[in-house]
Amino acid sequence: MGWVDTHCHLFLHPDPAEELLARAEAAGVDWVLCPGIDAATAVEARDLAAAFPDRVRWSAGLHPHEATRWSGEVETIAALAADADAVGECGLDHYRELAPREVQRIAFAEQVALAAELGKPVVVHCRDAFAEVYEVLADAEPGPWVVLHSWTGGRRWTRRFAELGVTFSFSGIVTYPTAGSLREAVDLVDPASALVETDTPYLTPEPRRRDRNEPRNVVAVGEVLADLWGLDVAEVARLTSARAEAVFGRRP
Ligand SMILES: [Zn+2]
């Protein structure tokens, strides 16, 4: 079994998706999930999934940076989400805070509710907003269907979110020497409840950090996790890909 890159914005990379997917396949990546960040990019993600049905799954949602557009896009996104493999990416970003916090919270809570209503997983962006994301999720009967994308929490928040039974997705950040508190929290996550992702075109793992990121680099994330967990790399591929299939699995 190969790898699954559970979070890559193929539409933000200048290279054609066909080439990115070919390079990923050569590196042992079986399939990827491409999350929309607004209605227009959710359509792009949907079209990529239609063009590469065995290689690309997709999600529809509004990124917290764009949250002020929620009232104008909610109907389009809800209609797209009904056909998608997941809802998101959505969440809270109090680091860049490009939209007011109250507006981010409404858009996020409504997307979590939409995912629950549709019976689909939700892809969550959480940056410097652990307590607030926790509050929203704790109200929504969280479980494996909640995917915390590019997880960066330290031991305290990792323990609390793990108690909710959610799915943790690790990105290239875990390969950065500066990410000490995250690396120290990895052992609190059951490898069977974890995913790997690139967040293409951002967050390129070491040692290629200066390059634009792409799905093939998900292997470097898995290798660092294997080291931190004391597992074989092949076992990390098997566990994370099984979790990806369980969370984003398509029902017949
Ligand atoms: Zn993203």
Task: Give the topology.
Elements: E1 3-5, H1 17-26, E2 29-35, H2 39-51, E3 56-60, H3 70-83, E4 86-93, H4 101-118, E5 122-127, H5 130-138, E6 146-149, H6 155-163, E7 167-170, H7 180-183, E8 194-196, H8 218-229, H9 233-248
Parallel strand pairs: 1-2, 2-3, 3-4, 4-5, 5-6, 6-7, 7-8
Helix pairs in contact: 2-3, 3-4, 8-9
Bound molecules: zinc ion.
Key structural traits:
single chain; 252 residues; alpha/beta; TIM Barrel; eight-stranded parallel β-sheet; 9 helices; 8 strands; 16% strand; globular; binds zinc ion
Please, how many helices?
Answer: 9
Q: Determine the strand fraction and express it as a percent band.
A: 15-25%
Unreliable stretches (pLDDT < 50, length at least 5) are none
Radius of gyration: 16 Å
Decide which structural class fits the backbone: alpha/beta
The CATH topology, please? TIM Barrel
- Give a count of the beta strands, DSSP E runs of length 2 or more: 8
- Tell me what the CATH architecture is: Alpha-Beta Barrel
* Average pLDDT level: 96
Helix content range: 40-55%
* Shape designation: globular
Bound molecules: zinc ion
Which strand order does the major sheet show?
1-2-3-4-5-6-7-8
CATH class: Alpha Beta
Order of helices and strands: EHEHEHEHEHEHEHEHH
In whole angstroms, the N-to-C terminal distance is: 21 Å
| Largest sheet descriptor | 8 strands, parallel
- Fourth-tier CATH superfamily name: Metal-dependent hydrolases
Number of domains: 1
How is this structure best described in words?
The chain is an alpha/beta fold. It has a single domain, classed as TIM Barrel (Alpha-Beta Barrel), CATH 3.20.20.140. Helix content is 42%, strand content 16%. It contains nine helices and eight strands. The protein has an eight-stranded parallel sheet. Helix 8 (218-229) packs across helix 9. The mean pLDDT is 96. Bound molecules: zinc ion.
